[in-house]
Amino acid sequence: MSKLNKDILFLIFEELQDDSKSLFSCLMINKLWCETVVPILWKNPWRYNINYNNKSYLFNIIEFYLSNDTKEYLIKERIRLPLITSKSPPFFDYLSFCRSININILNTIISIESLLDYDKFLLQQEFYGLFMKKLPELKFLDMRSIKHQIFYFPEAKIRLESLCELKCDTSIDSSYFYGLARICQRIQRLIIINVEPKTNRGITKLIEVQKNLKYFEWIDDFNEDYFTEDPYREIFLELEKKADVLKHLELLFIYLDGFDFYSTSLKKLLPKLHKLKTLITNEFSYNNGNLSERLIYNDLQVLNIGFISIHEASIIIGNSGGRLKEVSLKPCEFLKYEGNFSDNSLIFIRKIYENCPLIEYLSLTFYSSKDHFNELENLLKICQNLKSLLLITSNIFIRETKEKNLENGENLLKILIKSATINLRELRFFNDIKFSLKALEEFLEKWRGRPAITILTSDFTYESEDYRILINNYKNYGVIKVFRRESTMNVEDMNFKI
């Protein structure tokens, strides 16, 4: 590593850009490594899991860039800036590397000085103006909680024209978005937090003018128990017009009993978005009619849906183009409504191995029957790229004895040993799947020689003394990477990583 040139190091460190711990440790190796890492860290310095309330040196770095005239103006306004003890400039021109602004975090850094609200307002204005002036270009803007019309700064038009990603919320006045819509027309990623469930026509306008909107995310996050206005209809109508470019759609709704505004809008929107590669939503099956039959996505790679029957999921998968890499469904709450579950689950397994040869992440709900185990074995043999598998057995129409549950668990482990490839690195189980101590030990012993396995479960059984001793032994042998009990929510979330 010490002989690698700066260009090669840069490519390596860019692969670690989401891993702040590793990047920060690289700063201390030598001068070359430090010079290579700093531009990567400062490209979007707000992305890392840092407690900014305790980082006063960040305030000092930004303050250093303020002009003397600005500092004199702030002093006249009786705003006391922290004393910078060092007279020498920083080692790096940090802001020249920065391509992003996060309003919340900047405000947090400013609040470290415990200023009055008016003083904070003035200092925010100077910091935002500084960033608009110093940043070579602006790619990412998180403007939640913003109170300044930043598009009126002299350099704003040049900076905002290059904006690729915007995160905002619906509490911001429509006029603000009208101002942005005049300048920002190249946004590719748009993330909206819906904190006020009412129509925001400024956001609608902003979506309308975008020429290459590839990624759209909508997250409901409001506390009101009741609303009468549909906040989705106009925005979803504009998304329909982006059908030729929109690739990623993520919609997370709050369900309010008696109101299905999103369901009505969703039924019109989803069939139009024929170029989707990613479809993520936590609500699908509420009064949707034959929606699943109208969803034909030839490019679909990620299907992550909550509250869906496996019958509906099978139809979507059957209409996909064979490119699916993740099928993450949360059908558990819906099972009690699916009367023909046994047959439907068999069909679902077949649809997976017939239509998803590239599948890497899969949640599978099935009966513990001989036919289902046979089909699971077929799936494991055909789907060679499978990395993570969540298994959910549903015997809600059959009362299994404890002995039968343990027998089913033993059969399942034998199938995994016999048919799973070395690519399978993670197994997830819910409480209905039980393994005896003996069966689990036999499985782990036969897993030797493969890459270490991660196992997540929602069952407290495996925290008993006998199981803990067994699990720790096989961790020491290098067979188990992680064996952990997690909440049901985390186990079923394929994006939850240890």
Description:
Strand 8 (302-306), helix 13 (310-318) and strand 9 form a beta-alpha-beta unit. The relative contact order is 0.04. This protein has a 14-stranded parallel β-sheet with strand order 1-2-3-4-5-6-7-8-9-10-11-12-13-14. The chain has 19 helices and 14 strands. Among the domains are: 1-43; 277-498, Leucine-rich repeat, LRR (right-handed beta-alpha superhelix) (Alpha-Beta Horseshoe), CATH 3.80.10.10. By secondary structure, the chain is of the alpha/beta class. The protein is globular and about 80 Å long.
Mean pLDDT: 86
- Could you list the spans in which at least 5 consecutive residues all have pLDDT below 50? none
CATH architecture of the domain at 277-498: Alpha-Beta Horseshoe
CATH class of the domain at 277-498: Alpha Beta
- Radius of gyration, in Å, reads 27 Å
The neighbouring-strand order within the major sheet is 1-2-3-4-5-6-7-8-9-10-11-12-13-14
Look at the structure and name the CATH superfamily of the domain at 277-498: Ribonuclease Inhibitor
Main pleated sheet: 14 strands, parallel
> How helix-rich are the residues, as a percent range?
25-40%
User: What would you call the structural class?
Assistant: alpha/beta
CATH topology of the domain at 277-498: Leucine-rich repeat, LRR (right-handed beta-alpha superhelix)
Bulk shape? globular
Roughly how many Å apart are the termini?
Answer: 28 Å
Number of strands: 14
InterPro entries: LRR_dom_sf
Protein name: F-box domain-containing protein
